[in-house]
């Protein structure tokens, strides 16, 4: 039950609060024009009627000002017409009810409007003393996070949002021709802006400053002699306060029943503003503001006021002391420049005015876009740090520079670097174009040892440009561009005079390449070089060590074979007994073939056992052995071993031919070591005196025997040798 009671109580309170708020409704069929959130005009056609209604309480006032040619406005209270006019509908409600505004016109036209829906006040009619209590009004506060100004509107007046009954405005009614007073809280440094937006008769607004003990009437006032036009704003007035207190506003009219509305804005003090990375900044302010700007090399500060004239005192911080640079009167729509002194750390701009707007930007005036202003002279000593001299890269695209005359810049010196070998000669050419009247250029070749001028060439303007060329050695050299007679420029530092702009293009050609330099290595290079040589040497020895170990292994294996004669019979017996598989037998044969080349020819032959056929000449010895066919890798082939020993001469294009005396030709299907084989031939290629080679070959074919022949070129001459005895596949075939 208590929850239900609480709900109904809340509903009643909400209804009471809602009924106390003015509510409006307007005709949406007529085109309405809004500015800053309030209705300022309507466009109505001859057959249309604009209507708007709102709730009003007894004794509250309303006011509608119209500016039109053929319009008529009507005010009704709860359906009863109480006022009709073509320009001013102002009155007081005699009871609570609904006000309806109707506007018609006999022609199509735009009608300016200024409407205040509900006006009532309880302002004092007697000016209070400084320590007397008074009603305060809440004024709109504008700070740096809500600037509430926009210079693009053509002025920097405060921009109030909402209709004339909103919190941006202060409204009242002077119903008996007397003055009324209200107060606004003020802090030190505040600036109060006020302007009239609505008045049904003559009006004057004055401001007093009061603290706890004193009162002062401030200069300036707002006044109109007659009723204001619809949608009209008076010129704002500004009052600055240098201490805490209250602004006592006096509103006076000599006419009774004057309904008025004025906007009130307080601008808080922001006396100091710092700009460390200045590109472009918009400065709004009142009374006085100081702007601190960090100076940078070859950067000018541009000041511009698009609206009204502004006074600016410019100071520069030099060695910890502020020095007055210039008192600037910044004219409307005229740019002014500030140039920092070479030893200045900061620039301070003290901007003063009732209300002001200044655009501040920075502009780079460095030569060839390298962030520095080119010096006027070349470095005096070779050891001088020349990093502040802009560098021209020879042979690349043209670059731009300027004589910044406001800072007495009458000469620019650039360096250019030439790289090459010792005693090399380089041809360079410079072309300068632009605003170069009364100018000359000089190319200076420096002696890289003594830093004296080795050679210099000076040229002046010819056919609208200046060209100069010189052959120089490798190293650092300089180009100077200067004004011949600078005395014609009689001005002070920073005076606003135009600069002279020019462009530089270059051409390069290598005349003599010179000698490639040699530099002895330092101790570190020697040490690491020696380490690298030892390391690489050891790496090169690794293959030799591997070959040696393999040779030694083969030699040991061959020696072990030499102690065991008749290895072919032994292998056959192992196959017969099953202790060795054909695969193991082939592996043994290949290992033996790779190893016995380290033995003597006779020892190697004895290791295999009695040969089946053999032949020997002065230049070559041949021998052959039949193998057990079970050792063949391919079934049905005939495996044999052939030994070749070169006794004399060097062979080229050597080949073995395995000829079939009868039947079909043999085909070599397998050979080890892996020599190239084709048909019945095995190609041995080159063999030198002392070479001994044993190979296994598997012959594929249906012949019963084979003749073995070796041919090639010995010492450049054709040579051939053939074993006269035929090797038969089976013993019974040889007996036949």
Would you summarize the structure shown here?
With 736 residues, the protein is mainly beta. It has six helices and 45 strands.
SSE arrangement:
Blueprint: H1 2-20, E1 24-26, E2 31-35, E3 38-44, E4 49-56, E5 61-67, E6 71-77, E7 80-85, E8 88-92, E9 97-105, E10 109-119, E11 140-142, E12 169-174, E13 180-186, E14 191-199, E15 203-210, E16 215-224, E17 237-240, E18 245-252, E19 258-267, E20 272-275, E21 280-294, E22 299-304, E23 310-318, E24 321-330, E25 336-339, E26 344-364, E27 399-403, E28 411-418, E29 425-434, E30 439-446, E31 453-460, E32 465-473, E33 475-483, E34 500-512, H2 523-562, H3 567-577, H4 582-595, H5 601-608, E35 613-616, E36 620-626, E37 638-646, E38 651-659, E39 667-672, E40 676-678, E41 681-687, E42 692-700, E43 705-714, E44 717-722, E45 727-728, H6 731-735
Parallel strand pairs: 11-19, 20-21
Antiparallel strand pairs: 1-4, 2-3, 3-10, 4-9, 5-8, 5-10, 6-7, 6-9, 12-19, 13-18, 14-17, 14-19, 15-16, 15-18, 21-26, 22-25, 22-26, 23-24, 23-26, 27-34, 28-33, 29-32, 29-34, 30-31, 30-33, 35-36, 36-37, 37-42, 38-41, 38-43, 39-42, 40-41, 43-44, 43-45
Plain-language structure description:
It is a single chain. This protein folds into five domains: 99 residues, Jelly Rolls; 128 residues, Sandwich (Jelly Rolls); 93 residues, Jelly Rolls, CATH 2.60.120.1050; 146 residues, Sandwich (Jelly Rolls), CATH 2.60.120; 172 residues, Immunoglobulin-like. With 736 residues, it is mainly beta.
